[in-house]
Write a structure and sequence with these properties.
By secondary structure, the protein is of the alpha+beta class. It is built from 4 helices and 8 strands; from the N terminus they run H-H-E-E-E-E-E-H-E-H-E-E. The chain has one domain (about 10-164). Helix content is about 35%, strand content about 25%. The strands form 3 sheets. It has a 4-stranded mixed β-sheet.
Length: about 160
């Protein structure tokens, strides 16, 4: 079955505009900057064969973990009583070096945690699960620039090299 994504470009554009508007109006830490992306994901799920799927967010979006008893995800998608997807929504629009590293660590940690919990049958017989990690990154000079790495030579002199 092919995905029905008709009009997705308009919806993504609207979600990005909402991100910036909410960020400006309510601040970075409001917890609401990516809500329009929850609406976008809900539309994709409901438009593609799961019109009755339930989308859980907030305190309701918890699953068993391996390294901790539970893990909160930004979005859980349920088909009746069956968990079918767990998705994290993150953004990077400032402090790119620090936030980039944090986002990588979060994605790896969340992925390993749920994979191990899944393998230990913490989901009681569930055989498949979609895991997603959506990161909205600002398109600006800082995100397009090469990364400089300072190498320390044995002689103690430093040399910068560029990764691209």
């Amino acid at each position: 079955m092919a995905l029905n994504l008709e009009g997705y470009e308009r919806r993504v554009s609207k979600a990005v505009k909402s991100f910036w508007a909410v960020r400006e109006r309510e601040g970075v830490r409001s917890g609401k900057t990516l809500d329009a992306f929850v609406d976008l994901l809900t539309w994709v799920v409901h438009s593609n064969g799961l019109p009755d799927a339930i989308v859980l967010t907030g305190r309701k979006a918890q699953v068993p973990g391996f390294f901790r008893p539970t893990k909160s995800w930004d979005v859980l998608i349920m088909d009746h009583d069956t968990l079918i997807a767990a998705i994290e929504l993150k953004s990077i629009a400032d402090s790119f070096g620090k936030n980039g590293n944090n986002r990588n660590e979060e994605a790896l940690g969340s992925g390993v945690d749920i994979k191990e919990a899944f393998e230990e049958d913490a989901f009681e017989g569930l055989t498949r699960l979609f895991i997603g990690y959506l990161i909205l990154v600002e398109d600006c000079q800082e995100t397009l620039a090469s990364v400089q790495i300072v190498k320390k030579c044995i002689s103690g002199t430093r040399k910068a090299s560029s990764l691209r």
